Amino acid sequence: MTGPAAFAATFAALYAAHSFGDHWVQTHGQACAKGATSQSGRLACLRHVATLTATKAVALALVIAVTGLTVSLVPVAVGLTIDAVSHYWADRRAPLARLAERIGKGDFYRLGAPRPGTDDAPHLGTGAYALDQSWHHLWLFIAALIIAA
After folding, report:
1. In whole angstroms, how large is the CA radius of gyration of the chain?
2. Residues 102-115: pLDDT tens digits?
3. By residue range, what is the domain housing residue 97?
4. Per-residue pLDDT for 8 more than 80?
C-alpha cells in the first residue's frame, strides 16, 4: 500500500485512536488536572499524552498488521512525536486560549464556558473544546503525511 491509500489508512488509524484515547483512555484525573499551572498539572498532561500516543501507536500497528501497510520507523517516530508535542501544547489549555485570543477567536473559545461564580458545568459543546479538537485533527493530518511519505 503506497501513496494516497497509505496516507488514508494512517490518518484513519490516528484519527480513531485519537478520539478513543482522548475520551476513553484519558483518566478523569488527567482531564481535570492537565491544564493546571503546577508541576502536577504538567505531569498529568504528560501522562495523558503518553497514553494517547501509545493508543495511536497500537492503532497504527494494527493497520500495518491487517493491511500490509509498509512504513519506516523513523517517519513513524517523527510523526507521533510531532503529534504528541502539539497535543501537549494544546492540552495545557492556556497556550491554546492565548492563540485563540491572538487570532480573534477568543469569543468563540469562551462560547459555552461556565459563567464565573456559578456552578455551571462545562460540556463538550464549548468553543474551547471545538478549537482543541480541530487543533488536534490538524496535527493528526500532518503526522499522517509524515508517516505515509
Report:
1. 17
2. 999 999 999 988 77
3. 3-113+123-148
4. yes
